[in-house]
């Protein structure tokens, strides 16, 4: 089972695209760039959905196969681990869908907090990023301070 779907580096390969090559003077998040990221996000979402579906089927197939309580306990543990992973993936799918909507609305690629361009390279590493690197760093520092 592929485990690389949460790792951004695999996303470009997954979508079958290379890093975006900007032309001189090209508009940030014009049509070609939006199409590039739409392709990446679509491929990522499809992959995650397939994984979620596969696990559900897998669990339904196996759930009835362990009459022994010890086996069953071990399996329940395995299932709960898988369910947590699937839960993360479902949340990620929601985030991807939200990001796709931003592309539809022509509002993709800008920092949610300060409004500046997030940047192509950062978005290729993390297509669902909604903060620029400065705001992201700042919010992480704040989170750490609040956590004590
Ligand atoms: Zn910002």
Automatic annotation (TrEMBL):
Zinc finger (dksA C4-type): 111-135
Main location (coarse class): cytoplasm
PROSITE patterns documented for this protein: ZF_DKSA_1 (PS01102), ZF_DKSA_2 (PS51128)
Binding site for Zn(2+): 111, 114, 132, 135
DnaK suppressor protein DksA N-terminal domain segment(s): 33-103
Keywords, comma-separated and alphabetical: Cytoplasm, Metal-binding, Zinc, Zinc-finger
Compartments reported by the entry: Cytoplasm
Pfam families for the chain: DksA_N, zf-dskA_traR
Domain Zinc finger DksA/TraR C4-type: from-to ranges: 107-139
Record-stated family: Belongs to the DksA family.
Assembly notes: Interacts directly with the RNA polymerase.
Its job: Transcription factor that acts by binding directly to the RNA polymerase (RNAP). Required for negative regulation of rRNA expression and positive regulation of several amino acid biosynthesis promoters. Also required for regulation of fis expression.
Listed name of the protein: RNA polymerase-binding transcription factor DksA
């Amino acid at each position: 089972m592929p485990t690389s779907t949460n790792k951004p580096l695999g996303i470009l390969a997954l979508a079958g695209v290379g890093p975006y090559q900007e032309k001189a003077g090209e508009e940030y998040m014009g049509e070609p760039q939006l199409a590039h990221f739409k392709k990446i996000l679509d491929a990522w979402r499809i992959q995650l959905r397939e994984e979620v579906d596969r696990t559900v089927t897998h669990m339904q197939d196996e759930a009835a196969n362990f009459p022994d309580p010890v086996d069953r306990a071990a399996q329940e543990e395995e299932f709960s681990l898988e369910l947590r992973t699937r839960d993360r993936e479902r949340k990620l799918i929601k985030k991807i869908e939200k990001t796709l909507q931003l592309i539809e609305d022509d509002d993709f690629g800008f920092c949610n907090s300060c409004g500046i361009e997030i940047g192509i390279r950062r978005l290729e590493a993390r297509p669902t990023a909604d903060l620029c690197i400065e705001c992201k760093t700042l919010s992480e520092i704040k989170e750490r301070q609040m956590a004590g």
